[in-house]
Automatic annotation (TrEMBL):
Record's protein name: GTP diphosphokinase
RelA/SpoT domain residues: 42-166
SMART domains reported in the protein's UniProt record: RelA_SpoT (SM00954)
Similarity section: Belongs to the RelA/SpoT family.
PANTHER family the record matches: GTP PYROPHOSPHOKINASE YJBM
Gene3D superfamilies, sorted: Beta Polymerase, domain 2 (3.30.460.10), Nucleotidyltransferase (1.10.287.860)
Pathway involvement of the protein, from the record: Purine metabolism; ppGpp biosynthesis; ppGpp from GTP: step 1/2
Pfam families: RelA_SpoT
Compositionally biased region (Basic residues): 203-212
GO molecular function: ATP binding; GTP diphosphokinase activity; kinase activity
Organism, as annotated: Jeotgalibacillus malaysiensis
């Protein structure tokens, strides 16, 4: 099989899922309520990264069935949220959907990785319609806050540069940055709670005023 043929259903899945997940954000906006989804991105894993991972897992490059089964993020979607609480809301919305099934959830928020990485991963089985019938593929949806995304993006590009072998000072800085991102998320959640309390207070006051 050619790589182009193998990757085609993944491309289709990423395109379709981007539209669907972005649609969830639009629906919140139309209802004029806070959207737990800030923005959505998607990509098909580059062939070079698939081959790197295949080597790690000792899969040879022509074992397309094993690649499809064991590399769960060939199709990858990311949903960014403003607040940590939003992540759970998004996961609940994903669990309710009827257009795919969830096959695995990985909670790297309650259990952050030793690198400092935090994110919630949902692996889904998604049916793609092709001219040769339905093809089910795996896709990974990563749900994270803007702060988690900022940290992961920087760490990912440094990882690329240093091939995972960070000099000690950079390693320490990344750990401190991960803690700072965690505190930023906490601060934002607290500010949000205060804003919501203030809004509820003024709403009540307004309603009382209208009764007279
Ligand atoms: P990309 O496309 O460059 O982002 P497994 O397949 O189970 O052996 P793993 O790591 O258990 O591998 O899978 P998991 O936990 O689902 O993680 C896969 C993806 O999560 C990674 O993809 C990253 O996008 C993200 N991730 C996991 N750990 C880290 C981390 O420490 N730092 C950052 N920045 N991202 C992380 P890839 O393979 O890196 O590919």
């Amino acid at each position: 099989m050619k790589w182009e043929t193998f990757l085609e259903p993944y491309k289709q899945a990423v395109d379709e899922l981007k539209i669907k997940l972005k649609g969830m954000r639009t629906q919140f906006q139309l209802e004029q309520t806070h959207s737990p989804i800030e923005f959505v991105t998607g990509r098909v894993k580059p062939i070079a990264s698939i081959l790197d991972k295949a080597r790690e897992k000792e899969i040879s490059e022509d074992e397309f069935n094993r690649l499809a089964y064991q590399i769960q993020d060939i199709a990858g979607l990311r949903m960014m949220c403003q607040f940590v609480d939003d992540i759970e809301k998004v996961v609940k919305l994903l669990r309710q959907r009827r257009d795919f099934i969830i096959v695995e959830e990985k909670d790297y928020i309650s259990h952050k990785k030793s690198s400092g990485y935090r994110s919630y991963h949902v692996v889904i089985e998604y049916p793609v319609q092709t001219i040769n019938g339905e093809k089910k593929i795996l896709a990974e949806i990563q749900i994270r806050t803007l702060a988690m995304n900022f940290w992961a993006t920087i760490e990912h590009s440094l990882n690329y540069k240093y091939q995972g072998q960070f000099p000690e000072d950079i390693q320490n800085r990344l750990q401190r940055a991960a803690e700072a991102a965690f505190r930023l998320d906490e601060e934002m959640s607290e500010i949000r709670e205060e804003i919501q309390e203030a809004q509820a207070f003024f709403q009540k006051k307004k309603e009382k005023g209208n009764q007279h």
